[in-house]
Every structure is written in structure tokens, then in C-alpha cells.
Amino acid sequence: xxxxxxxxxxxxxxxxxxxxxxxxxxxxxxxxxxxxxxxxxxxxxxxxxxxxxxxxxxxxxxxxxxxxxxxxxxxxxxxxxxxxxxxxxxxxxxxxxxxxxxxxxxxxxxxxxxxxxxxxxxxxxxxxxxxxxxxxxxxxxxxxxxxxxxxxxxxxxxxxxxxxxxxxxxxxxxxxxxxxxxxxxxxxxxxxxxxxxxxxxxxxxxxxxxxxxxxxxxxxxxxxxxxxxxxxxxxxxxxxxxxxxxxxxxxxxxxxxxxxxxxxxxxxxxxxxxxxxxxxxxxxxxxxxxxxxxxxxxxxxxxxxxxxxxxxxxxxxxxxxxxxxxxxxxxxxx
Amino acid sequence: xxxxxxxxxxxxxxxxxxxxxxxxxxxxxxxxxxxxxxxxxxxxxxxxxxxxxxxxxxxxxxxxxxxxxxxxxxxxxxxxxxxxxxxxxxxxxxxxxxxxxxxxxxxxxxxxxxxxxxxxxxxxxxxxxxxxxxxxxxxxxxxxxxxxxxxxxxxxxxxxxxxxxxxxxxxxxxxxxxxxxxxxxxxxxxxxxxxxxxxxxxxxxxxxxxxxxxxxxxxxxxxxxxxxxxxxxxxxxxxxxxxxxxxxxxxxxxxxxxxxxxxxxxxxxxxxxxxxxxxxxxxxxxxxxxxxxxxxxxxxxxxxxxxxxxxxxxxxxxxxxxxxxxxxxxxxxxxxxxx
Lengths: 334, 339
What we know:
Chain A: One of its GO terms (cellular component) is plasma membrane. Chain A is mainly alpha-helical. Chain A contains 13 helices and no strands. Chain A has helices spanning about 1-30, 35-40, 45-55, 60-70, 85-120, 125-140, 145-160, 180-185, 190-230, 230-240, 245-280, 285-295, 300-325. Chain B is α/β, with parallel strands linked by helices. Chain B has a domain at about 1-230: P-loop containing nucleotide triphosphate hydrolases (Rossmann fold).
């Protein structure tokens, strides 16, 4: 197990090295630069050159890269051009919001997707199955920002059931020891604050969950359909086991194997989707900070954000692989 | 006294856009308690479908099962699903063909064995584990305590089939159905598994229905044999009589097709010409007729009658011209049992 983890962490090094080069080149290939963005369209070339010199952008690319890399290994991504604060601090402050949102979305996707996928498989070929398959196709194809605005329009603006934006009521004065607002309310005994945070979380989480939910429904359906035809399910039936035992021990456990892998891969979709969702709902997480950073050509923020996301993605999938090993003894790492 | 009575069992698969197929067509046979019965036939003859029909394990959709399957005084075909689950594993247990795929790969051997004991014998898991260890030991698995904690992929094919057998005999069923239990195994292992089955059946007194395409398996194991062709039983006979004097040309062809080690002329191996048709309707005559060397006009125009040839133990053949039989005494006609 330890060897497996160490090996995966070592594999991270070439991935990150390659990614950082791509990233570095890509950010600098964006039209306009931070100086232009800072000074506006009418800036004189002299002023632009002066700012660029301040930021070190006038030096050769390879020199900039070496300097960036040297700092990045110490988790120093430089100061954000938007706020002047170190990028790592800005992200640390905003990460809990994004994690809270991503976890909420993942919970929705898993808790709704797996039962629906199972139901579709069990009702294979019926109108219910077709309806679920069509709905999941819609879920994958509708863009997040469209769905997000639609949800906001219906449930926040028209019906007024839920807040339109933000993470908490702006008038609330509550403490945030962890930065996870729902958890903070529970920790400080302020359950109203938890509830408030939860209502702010619902719409963005649903919008963000749409793609993973649809993928999980389809994957679960296909996987259950496969497993239902397996010989060992027939063996379980032949033993006269109760339907609940057959489903739990012999159908679901096996059909969850491919679903687990897909859930891990969906984390990438969640983190990327957070950029759009947080922007629509003015949800103060790293996604929104990143979106603002792109507009401002905030190089340090963009670079730091993407690297951190990449590391999280690899780590999450490593955890998924470990879980997979627990579920399937055949791939267990000794 | 037979305790499994199958009468006129017919299984029809409906296929979207195609005419339905009768995989099993009016099959009747009896199994006496403690008896060993073989059902022989090639792929597609309906032998596996027959066994799955007895277990009521055929898919519910697009499949129609008619006739009667009496286990003791219970009609299995109309038994509510809940009661059928009590019968499965407790009264009738099944051993499947491929032990590689018939065991759940992500559940330990022990758990798969214990779950059937807990289900039917209403024992605690601890007590069931004790039974499981004894069962693994009985089917010849060394170090059963360790094996119990292992997963199927850690066992060899022969070991896995032994686990399947242990699962089947766990609740001392009165009837064991073994569907080609040795087909997926090495030849040397096949003999061991058959020996084990024979010993277990003798020891427990349970009846055994052996589904196989291998006449050698039948010869060594079964008292009564039914030969199936294209969904119907074409010949039923005690094993000894069947091998000595096969009455149906199909049985005869099968026996001749077995290569013999003491064969002195090194010629071509005997085969039955043609191959099994996808769908053969018995309505228009004997389904084997197109491949039969002895076919006459009487073979066409409807299913051939079943003739009773018994001169002692029950013996029937579905053929107007049974082979290898002494000519009937003048004036006496062979009894027609059914059309």
C-alpha cells in the first residue's frame, strides 16, 4: 500500500513538470498582458514597459520559467496582481468554499445518480428507462452556465425560494473557523448560519452536479445491466438468497467498480465546472478568483490555481484507486 | 417412487421480429429419490434450459414455460417466488458449468458459502462458518480455514468447482442438478470432480441430475439416461442398456463418434453428418431425420411416436425404426406411448 502511494506520488513529478511548461507557455500566449490589463487600452508603451519590468516580464522566457519553478516548489506562486496578496494565501482562503461546493455537488450526483442508474437498469427497456437515459443525455449536453442561470431565474428570482448569489446572507455576522460555512455553523453552535449557508449552496451545487450526475446514472445503468447477466448472480439466485442480499452483495458491489473510477474522473469536471458555477452565483471560491484572474491576466494566480487543481486531481484519483482496491480484491495492491 | 416428475415441459423463447423458438418441447422424465439421472445432448439440445426451468432460473421476460414440474407434492411452476426461493439451495441445488464465472469475484469464498447456510439453516454466522470449514474439508480442499478467507481468483479451477459443490451440498438438498460441471476443467481434474460427486451422492442419498454432452461422464455415473435432440427426449434408457444397444439412430451415431483407443484401423473418425439446425420444428417430422442414415417416409409428416421397448427397466425411444432391437414377437405390436 505504502509503495503504491509513493509510486503514485513520484509519478506526479513528471506530470507537474510537463504541465507547468505547458501552462507557462499558454498563459504568456494570451493576448495582452497583465500590464495592459492593469493600465487599460490607452496605456502608453512606456508605461506598459515599466510595469512589465517591475513584474519581471521583460526578461527571457526561460529565465522567468526557472524563477517560477524555483518558487513554485516552495509553494510560492508570487503575489496576485488583483489583490497584491500571495496567491497561495488567496487560494487557501477560498479553497474551503470550492471544496464545500464540489463535495455538495458530488454528494448530489452520487446519492441521486446511483439509485436512478440502478432503477433504469432494473426497468430496462421500459418508458422509465428511456426517460432516465434521455434526461441524463440532457444533463451532459446542457452547458453549466446555462443551467445555472436557469436555476437562478426559476428558484431564486421567480419563486424566491432560495438566495440568488453568495455564500451567506451578507447581513449575517458569523465566525468562520474552518471556512466551510455549513460546518462552521455547526461548530460555533449557530445552526441558523449553517442553514443559511446550505440554502446558498443548493442551487450552485445542483448546477455543478448536472454533468457528473448524468455520467453516474449512465455508468451505473450500464454496469448493473452487465452484472445482472453474470453467472455469479445466477449462482446467488440458485442458492435461494433473498433479493436484498443478491442486490447488495452480488449486484451492486460488482457494478460499483467502474462507477468508482468514473466518480474519480468526474472530480476534474467538478473543479473545472466550479469556475463557471462560482462566477454565475458570485460564490467566493477559487473558481471565481481564477475566472477573475483570467480577465485580469493575473499570471501568478492562473499558474498557481491550475497547478493546485492538477495536484488535487491526481491525489483524488489516487484515493479512488485505493478505494477500488478495497472493493475489488483482484486489483488489490499488496 | 419418483420425487421429481417433469411432465410435458415446454420452454418457448419469443424473439422480437422473429418467430418464437421452442428450446424445450414436451419433455417428460422422472427422478427417483437417490437416483442418478443423466441428460445428454449437444449444444442447443435444450438440456441446460431444462435444468434452469426446474430451478425456475430462466429470465421472466420473453420466456414462456408450460407443463408441470412436481417436486414431491409441490408444483414448482406455479409456486410463488418467495416459496421458490426457499426451495432453491435447500431442496434443489445446482452446480454450474464454469466455476471461473459462477463465483462472485469480489466476495470471499467463505462468505459465499456461509450465506447459503445462514439463509436456509437459520444458523448464526459463527455456526455457519464451522459448517463451511467442514464442507470445504469434505469436498477435498486442503487448509479450509485459510481458503475461507480467500477470493475465488486465488483458487485453481478445480478448487473453485469444489467450492461450488460445497455450496450446493451445504443444505443437504434432496436433488442436485449439475450442468456440465466438468466441461471447463482439465481432464485430470474432471475425473476427480466426478469421483467426488459420486461419493457425495452415495453418502448423502440425494438424487443427481447430470447434464452433459459427454457420454463418458454418463457411463461412469448415471443409472438412467435421457438423450435429448433439438428440444425433445429421443431416447430414455438405463445406462447399461443404452450403451449396449442404442435404439435411436442419434444415440447410435453419438456412440460411434467416440474415438476408441483399441480401434485397429486408423481411418477417419466417425461423425454424424450435417449439424444441428437453428430451429427445428418437430411438427413436420423427426428433427433428426435430415441427418439420419436410416430415415424412411414414416419419419416425416409429424413427430414420430414414442415406442416403449422396456423388457424390465423403463426404456423408450422416439423413432419409428428403433435400432439394435430384437424383432418383436409375431402378432405383438410395440406399444405406442404417445405421439
